[in-house]
Amino acid sequence: MQKLFLILIISVIFISIITYADAQQIPDWIKNNAKWWSLSQISDHDFARGLEFLVNEEIIKIPKDVESERQSEQQIPSWLRKNAGWWSQGLLSDEEFLKSIQYLINVGIISISSDTKEAIQSDFMIASFDISKAGPIEGDKNAPITIIMFSDFQCERCVKWFLNEKKEITEKYIKTGKANFVVLDYPMLGDDSVSAAEANYCAHDQGKYFEYHNYLYTKHRGIQNGWANQESLVKYSEDLEMDSEQFDSCLLWDRHSLRVAHNKMVGSSHGVVSTPIFFIVNSEGDFERITGSQPPAVFDRVIKEFG
């Protein structure tokens, strides 16, 4: 009843002052952000940046005469967090949710900057790839080429490529600023694949993403045979001198399960069904797929073509 009452009030307010844009333009990452925000898994700031994207893309259209009358920024009301959760679950329509955001922007409770469009796009999107929940980018973020790897920690071909071919890619492209490199999770070989991916983000919470990521590859011993179960993953955190109690709690409560699931969804939306899969993306947003554990010469050809 409360939900319906809020929707009716907001709809009446906006009928005369808001131009509503086509909700089909809303990127999936924004709905995911709404879900995580409703569960308090991302900050108000991160959620607001998604809203800024909607305004800058004119998915939410704010009339200039209304925009100029905004009040000072206030605390975001608790009912919006509920609305965000309902919307992410399909219990609230795109139009209803956007109208609630439009109302809060126009009364000044949510403050939107008009000059952040480029920053939001570069932080969250590389071409059509949503990297908002990936680990940190390796190399220069402004490099003209991005190499995206979809990987599973239990995948033997991923391990061999990373421990061998990756070294030449790093020296030739990443260290020279010609390309950067980012890994997205695609766990497909069992529960331990999911646990290992989540563990890497638990390490990231303690500032040791790359150290833990690389260490896991050196510990590979096959599929579902114990080397990547929770006990082993916690032991590796001790080896790397992390706070093992904090790490164990993070892993036990699946603190990063949604993050891993999101990254796998990004892969599925681009036709990934196995690992390793690579996408070479240039600054224009064009990309080419490389399937399997390919030698550096294959990457050379694609990067040269895009360069």
Rounded mean pLDDT is: 81
**Quick one: CATH superfamily of the largest domain?**
Glutaredoxin
SSE arrangement, N to C: HEHHEHHHHEEEHHEHHHHHEEH
Largest sheet: 4 strands, mixed
Lateral arrangement of strands in the main beta sheet: 6-5-7-8
Strand content: 5-15%
Distance between the termini: 58 Å
User: Percent range for helical residues?
Assistant: 40-55%
> Compute the gyration radius: what is it?
22 Å
The gross shape turns out to be globular
In terms of structural class, how would the helical and strand content be classed? alpha+beta
Tally of domains: 2
How many β-strand runs? 8
CATH fold assignment of the largest domain: Glutaredoxin
User: Spans of 5+ residues with little confidence (pLDDT < 50)?
Assistant: 1-24, 65-74, 114-122
The first-level CATH class of the largest domain is given as: Alpha Beta
CATH architecture of the largest domain: 3-Layer(aba) Sandwich
What's the tally of helices?
Answer: 15
Write the layout of secondary structure elements.
Elements: H1 2-14, E1 19-20, H2 28-38, H3 44-56, E2 60-61, H4 64-67, H5 78-88, H6 94-106, H7 117-124, E3 125-126, E4 129-130, E5 145-151, H8 156-163, H9 165-174, E6 179-185, H10 191-205, H11 209-218, H12 230-239, H13 244-252, H14 257-269, E7 277-282, E8 287-291, H15 296-306
